[in-house]
Amino acid sequence: MRISLFALVCALALPSSLLPAQDRLAIVGAVVIDTADRGRSTRDIEDAVILVENGVITAVGPQERIAVPEGFRIVEGTGKFVVPGLVDGFAVLNNHAYANAFLHSGVTSILAVSGGRRGPLFTRAKPSPHLYPLEDVGYESAPLEKLLTRVDDIADEGARVALLMYRLTPDKLRLVAQRCRERGLATIGELALTTYEQGMDMGLDAFVHTTRYSLGMAPEELRLGVAKEPFSDDLASPKWRWYKWLSAIRPDNPRLARYAKALGHSETYILPTAGLLALHHPWSKNPWTEPAAVLLDPKDINQPADPETGKQAHDAAHREAYARLAAATEIVEKAYHSAGARYLAGSGCDVWGSMPGISLVWELDALVRYGLTPREALAAATSSFADAFGWKELGEVRPGRRADLLLLDQDPRADIRAIRSIATIVLGGRLIDRAKLLTLPEDGKIVEREAFAPSAEEKSTPGLDEVGIERITYLSDGLRVKGWLLTPKAPGPHPAIVYCRGGNREFGALDEKRVLGRLLPMARWGYVVVASQYRGVAGGEGLEEFGGAEVNDVLALLPLLDSLPEADSDRIGLYGSSRGGMMSLLTISRTDRFRALVLKGPVTDLIRWKKDRPGIEEVYEELIPGYDKEGDAVLLPRSPARWPEKLSPKTPILLMQGGADWRVPPGSAFELAEGLQALHRTLRFVLFEGADHGLTEKRKEARALAHEWFDRFVRDRSPLPDTRPHGR
Question: Model's pTM, two decimal places?
Answer without folding.
Answer: 0.69
